[in-house]
């Protein structure tokens, strides 16, 4: 099976840049999607196809994907960005299933 | 505005069955794949199942294969998850999600608010 590895937590001061990584074997060959989930809420798509933003998501959110690591970058972090972030890819070897990373808790200091 | 409203969750005994529903509105339902994703209390997201736009292709995560069944009624704009032989480890909030395309390997574009399934005697 395919495994995505995320750090359990990332902390950053307001106004700084947060980077959340998602590691996977040759993940650069896959499309990576990112979701934000605040306590008590449903997940929200923030990045799709590595670095595309849905309408309504601030330009401060960006993504990259190469080699064995995909990264979600949040610039000029705000208190409202505090949330859990999940990466996701599709694994399609003979079947189709979505794989999620374990999630990263972003804390705004 | 896209809306996804899940229903059908509740308390069920181990070995029991439950059917979840997800009523969709605000988009052309028959053109998009649909998904179920679950989240156990305090845990991360876990893929459960997917169905393509016309319902002729379905997929399941290994932990639920053979016990759960996904279906859709495009005339009612509703997707279902039939859950059988429920186990305590199936206890979770179950989210319905809209796909970005008719095929299943798009992305989870919108999510419902979820319905809680509790498996306990």
Can you walk me through this structure?
The complex is a heterodimer of chains A (109) and B (121). Chain A contains no helices and 9 strands. With 109 residues, chain A is an all-beta fold. In chain A, strands 1, 3, 4, 7, 8 and 9 form a 6-stranded mixed sheet that branches. In chain A, strands 2-6-5 form a 3-stranded antiparallel sheet, with no helix packed on it. In chain A, strand 3 and strand 4 form a beta hairpin. The relative contact order of chain A is 0.33. By secondary structure, chain B is an all-beta fold. In chain B, the strands form 2 sheets. In chain B, strands 2, 4, 5, 6, 9, 10 and 11 form a 7-stranded mixed sheet that branches. A 4-stranded antiparallel sheet of chain B has the order 1-3-8-7, with no helix packed on it. In chain B, a hairpin with an 8-residue loop joins strand 9 and strand 10. The N and C termini of chain B lie far apart (40 Å). The chains are: A mainly beta (109), B mainly beta (121). At the A-B interface, strand 3, strand 7 and strand 8 of A face strand 5 and strand 10 of B.
Considering the chains and any ligands shown, give keywords for the structure.
heterodimer; A: mainly beta; 9 strands; globular; B: 121 residues; mainly beta; four-stranded antiparallel beta sheet
């Amino acid at each position: 099976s395919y495994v995505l590895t995320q750090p359990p937590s990332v902390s950053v001061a307001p106004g700084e840049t947060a980077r959340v990584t998602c590691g996977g074997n040759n993940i650069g060959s896959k499309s990576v999607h990112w979701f934000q989930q605040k306590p008590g809420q449903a997940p929200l798509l923030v990045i799709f196809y590595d670095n595309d933003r849905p309408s309504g998501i601030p330009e401060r959110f960006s993504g990259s994907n190469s080699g064995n690591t995909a990264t979600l970058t949040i610039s000029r972090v705000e208190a409202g960005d505090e949330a859990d972030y999940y990466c996701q890819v599709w694994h399609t070897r003979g079947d189709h299933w979505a794989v999620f990373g374990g999630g990263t808790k972003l804390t705004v200091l | 505005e896209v809306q996804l409203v899940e229903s059908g969750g509740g308390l069920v005994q181990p070995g029991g069955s439950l059917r979840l529903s997800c009523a969709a509105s605000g988009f052309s339902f028959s053109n998009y794949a649909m998904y179920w994703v679950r989240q156990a209390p305090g845990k991360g997201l876990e893929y459960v199942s997917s169905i393509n736009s016309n319902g002729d292709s379905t997929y399941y995560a290994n932990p639920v294969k053979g016990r759960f069944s996904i279906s859709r009624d495009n005339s009612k704009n509703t997707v279902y998850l039939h859950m059988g032989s429920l186990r305590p480890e199936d206890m979770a909030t179950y989210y319905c999600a809209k796909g970005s395309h008719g095929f299943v390997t798009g992305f989870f574009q919108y999510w419902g608010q979820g319905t809680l399934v509790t498996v306990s005697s």
